[in-house]
Amino acid sequence: MDAPIARQDWDEAERGLDARGWTLLPRLLTAGQCAAAGGLWEAEKGFRSRIIMARHGFGEGEYRYFAYPLPALVAGLRERLYERLAPTANRWAETLGSDMRFPERHADYLARCHEAGQMRPTPLILRYEAGGYNALHQDLYGPHVFPIQAAILLSRPGEDFEGGEFLLTEQRPRMQSRGTAVPLDQGDAVLFAVNHRPVRGTRGWYRTAMRHGVSTIRAGERRTLGIIFHDAA
Description:
- There is one protein chain.
- Helices cover about 25% and strands about 35% of the residues.
- By secondary structure, it is an alpha+beta fold.
- It has one domain: Sandwich (Jelly Rolls).
- The longest helix is centred in the middle third of the chain and has 24 residues.
- It starts with a helix and ends in a 6-residue tail after the last strand.
């Protein structure tokens, strides 16, 4: 995964994360890689759990968490993206007055999670059919939270499915929430704040909370690969 990640404009990605809490990595995966990743859904092994979203009030659809060891593509994305995002995560933590700091290597960060009892892997595949959606939420699985995560669209909008826009909302202090629909093509990755991000106000920096979800699928089927960098308790 070194080449497709290295060719991204990471200066622009950092500016986007700072300015609005999300950024786009276009064509991070090829069509072939998307097909291979999406095809993992049908595998009988390699997952630790399967969630039917309606049973928990999460939306309409389902997702499956990978088990360790992760597939090579998923593991490579998780490691290499973490390395690129750790400097931004540390800068956000310092700006918000947190003493949390994130090591350069993802393996070292996972060791910290595991020592705290967060040992269950969190990368996942999500699958929606017509009528499906994902309610706005945050992926928080314990006290250790890496502040940025990734979602990669594996399906072809306009061909495999209709609707199903990736949604973000930002809850601003003493203001109404702001919503954004992020346009994604097959293979694009959106990086976005998991929980809080720093925003400069007239009286200095403050933290604003973000949530993410997916609008209703009007037709077809939509599959997404989710990369979360902290493990779950």
